[in-house]
Amino acid sequence: MIHVGQLKEELIQYANEIGVDKIRFASADTFDSLKDRLILHESLGYLSGFEEPDIEKRTNPALLLPKAKSIVAIALAYPSKMKDAPRSTKDARRGIFCRASWGTDYHVVLKKKLDMLEEFLRSKHEDIRTKSMVDTGELSDRAVAERAGIGFSAKNCMIITPEFGSYVYLAEMITNVPFEPDEKIEDQCGTCNKCVDSCPTGALVNPGQLNSQRCISFLTQTKGFLPDEFRSKIGNRLYGCDTCQTVCPINKGKDFHLHPEMEPDPEIAKPLLKPLLTISNREFKEKYGHVSGSWRGKKPIQRNAILALAHFKDTSALPDLVDLMHKDPRPVIRGTAAWAIGKIGDGQQLSELEKALERESDEEAKQEIIKGIELLQAPLNTK
Q1: Of 21, 358, 265, 259, nearest to 161 (Cα)?
Q2: Which of 236, 238, 268, 315 is the most exposed place for a label (fewest CB within 10 A)?
Q3: Model confidence pTM above 0.85
Q4: How many CB atoms lie within 10 A of CB 91?
Q5: Residue 267, Cα to own-chain centre: how many angstroms?
């Protein structure tokens, strides 16, 4: 016979010992309001496509673990400020990875904690069943964290904790143990609308409603050509976007350095842009393989690095960009490089672009080269 109340206390105690910053408990009932919202967002075309496609699985814990009775939600706080951040200078421009890609991939860090919690629970009784997930699982981490009282669901669609702000990684474990659920936390956004007003692309269509297709964080992870309207918005972001977190008043002064494995390597989190243009697959794997921002491979990062160099109008990158336009095997890289040459260059590169246009066989890349040519011919002040 398990004494559930006592087991809950023991699990909380153990979680604290192994470095879980917050642990709360929720019922395993279906997430009905989330289901309605997902159906609506799907019909509006707001979903990213990275999510679990089966809405039933996303909203019904019992489909993931038979006889599910409760969900254990955890949060780990990550740093918001980089120590010894290198400066981006005119001759050595740098890009930036968002805070959720600093240090070791958070999926790995949280999975370790979940494994330990599962083992602890299962050691207590042979009939205890568990199923854990971090971010890429079926359930919505945020819906679970909100129900469990880890934090409240804010207008920027983040979970905001009173202790750590929104700078937390979330994960959960479904179990057949009927843990007593914790209380939800009251919404503290009030009339503040800073995140919605500050979103560079207007992706926060309403408070708490995100159109992922317009969200820079999502767009930096796509592999095709970045749509024109977003190219001037991406700035020097290589992966992710933190604007709706950094403008949040609750996040002001929140900067926790509780987990050494989450500390960023400044040269990886804020890397030089030009070396990224020519980095080999092997080098990329060795240098960036351990961070979450590398999960889509090097192509999106390289495309974004080209856009960042265009943003800075870095003329020292022109030789590398001309090289990419002529020699890279990937149409997205050839085309984006051609567009960037148009943004950065002057009439001198015109013949290179025309040469590339003659040889280009990919239709989309051709369009980009034409844009590049038009940009080179445009008066300077209109670029």
Answers
A1: 21
A2: 315
A3: yes
A4: 7
A5: 19
Whole-angstrom distance, CA of residue 199 vs CA of residue 158: 14
Taking the C-alpha atoms of residue 304 and residue 235, their distance in angstroms, rounded to an integer, is: 9
Contacts of residue 222, defined as CB under 8 A and 6 or more positions apart, other chains included, come to: 300
d(CA 292, CA 296): 9
The residue with tokens 């914790």 is 182
Closest CA to 35 of 153, 139, 160: 139
Known catalytic residues are 135
Reported as a single tens digit per residue, the pLDDT across 57-102 is 999 999 999 999 999 999 999 999 999 999 999 989 999 999 999 9
Q: How far is CA 282 from CA 80, 158, 292, in A?
A: 29, 35, 17
Q: Rounded mean pLDDT of 340-369? A: 97
Phi first, then psi, for residue 380 (nearest 5°) are: -50, -40
If you write DSSP's letter for every residue of 195-249 in order, what string do you get? HHHH-TT--EEETTEE-GGG-HHHHTT--SPPPHHHHTTSTTEEE---HHHHT-G
Please say whether the beta carbons of 64 and 131 come within 8 A. Answer: yes
For 97, 101, 231, 331, the CA distances from 224, given in Å and listed in that order, are: 19, 21, 13, 9
Residue with tokens 């844009």: 371
Give the number of other CB atoms < 10 A from CB of residue 332: 22
237-272 per-position pLDDT tens digit: 999 999 999 999 999 999 999 999 999 999 999 999
In order of 83, 300, 322, the CA distances from 273 in angstroms are 20, 13, 15
As a whole number of angstroms, the distance between CA 167 and CA 171 comes to: 14
- Tens-place pLDDT, residues 179-191: 999 999 999 999 9
Residue with the two structure tokens 């079926």? 138
How much is the CA Rg of the chain, to the nearest whole Å? 23
Q: How many Cα atoms occupy the beta-carbon half-sphere of 274 within 13 Å?
A: 17
Rounded to 5 degrees, φ, ψ at 130 are -145, 155
The Cα–Cα gap between 141 and 169 comes to 9
Picking from 363, 345, 361, 362, the residue whose alpha carbon sits closest to that of residue 373 is 345
Query: What's the token pair of residue 264?
Result: 């960023």
> Is residue 165 helix, strand or coil?
strand
